[in-house]
Structure formats: structure tokens, C-alpha cells
């Protein structure tokens, strides 16, 4: 059986010999053995520091696997950096089901300097394309034209969405402002432009998808009206 030495004992020996320990000895494996034998370090130590402590810096501070396909292997690389020494940790991820996954790389250090690096994996909509600007053709007064923004999903999970009008204009209407993008399907957001005077108008929308680490999509739509347009 492999014996894990205490932090103070390990670092005291290291300083006495004046030779750095291989960092692979500091990285705590989070896998649970089939026999469910309690792990001394996990039960007696706390791992609260993120990204860096007084001796070690982890880059990146977290490992996200944003979007995946079942049965496909993915790899992320993590670097441990200390003065005069570096160590690279490669994390392999192969999902078997559509859900959120979480784990943590724990680095056992001296005293209260224990370091953890969160590892996340989650399905996302990676084929959603919303342009930043859309120009609607000129429309005669009293008439209207609609533009459809499709929201599609290629994975078997529903995603909620919300549309915020951050720069409104009364010549524009937007429907729906919220809803669900169905699994392996799509939903349409319709923007209707009905000018009431001869000028150029615009509205700015922000589309937010309910997924992890999501960034909003911002889209500005412009429309105009001028005299003598064909009806």
C-alpha cells in the first residue's frame, strides 16, 4: 500500500535535501477505488485555494470542457509552475451521457496552502449563429416586414432562452421574448418592423441561453422608410 506523507514532513525533508520534489507527488488523484477505501488526504485536508498559492501557480485556473459528443475523447492540459520547475498534467475526458460533469485536481501543499483546480464538462449549443447586425429592407409607411432569427440546437437537451431589448424602438416588436430551444430542434424569434415616419430606426437585442459559461449574443437590427417606395 502506498503511504501518503504529511505536508510538513514532506516539505521538511525536501528543504533538508535541498532538492525539489517531483510535482507528480503533489497531485492528488480523485478517482475512487472500487473498494471505496477512505483516502487519508481527502478526509484530513482541505483544498480551498484556487489558481495559486505561495509556491504553485496553476494555468488555467479551471479546466472547462464546454460542449462534447458522447464516446469522443477530449483532452485539456494543465501546467503546474514553481520556481525552477514545471509539470504538465493532461486531463482526458470521455463522456458516456448528456449531463454536467464535475471533478477537481487537488494539489497537496504545505500547511494551509492546498490548491485545487476545478474540472467542468457540460453540453452546450455550439452551432448557434446570431449575426451582430441585420439590415431590414426599406418599408413603406403603414406597411410591415418581419425578420426571423432561428435558434437551433443539435444536442438532445432542451435549452431555455431569454431575449432582452437593450435598445428599444417603438417601430420594432419582438416575439417571443423567452422560451425553450427543443432538443435537436429549433425555435424562431421574429422581429417585426413597422415604420411610422421617414427615417432609419434600429433596435438592439441581447439573447441569453441558459447554459454553463454562456456569453450573451448581441444583435442590432436596422430598418428604414422613405417616400415613393413601391407598396
TrEMBL record:
This is Cep192-like domain-containing protein. One of its GO terms (biological process) is motile cilium assembly. Gene3D superfamilies: Immunoglobulins. It comes from the Eukaryota. The lineage of its organism: Eukaryota, Metazoa, Chordata, Craniata, Vertebrata. It comes from Coregonus suidteri. InterPro entries: Cep192-like_D3 (IPR054089), CFAP221 (IPR029676), Ig-like_fold (IPR013783). GO terms for cellular component: 9+2 motile cilium. It holds the Pfam family Cep192_D3. Residues 139-224 form the Cep192-like domain. PANTHER family: CILIA- AND FLAGELLA-ASSOCIATED PROTEIN 221.
